[in-house]
Model the fold of this input.
Amino acid sequence: MSEEVRKSRHAVPRAMFWSICLNSVLAFAMSLIWLYFLGPVEDVLSSPYGLVPIVINATGSVRAGSAMIGCFLITVIAVFLGCIASTSRLTWAWSRDGALPQWFGYVDRRYRVPVRSLWASIFLVMLLCLLSLASYIAIGVVIALGTF
Done:
């Protein structure tokens, strides 16, 4: 995507640096907030979903906590859609440049979207999600390899 930015040689590294700095500060602040509203550790550990008792404890209401979890889920879905769009665009670009088969480079005339690379990205994510059904250790290894 850097090919679409003016002065990309300087703008892209600068944007990456400042986004890492800002996200680090926000992640630290979010961690402090979660720890402040954690409540009894036993409640969080005994809950099948650790986030729910923390949010209910922070809001003091099941309805407000449910609304907050709903907003969190909407954010997760939006992030997922952005990731799929980004990976499909990368797959299309690699296909265009010859690093992947040309089959992935097909752009649908009606939707003007690289449909094959989009579905390939979704299919790969679905396969990785199936690993969690087989074993939590297997999906843990895949995630650890991606974050190494």
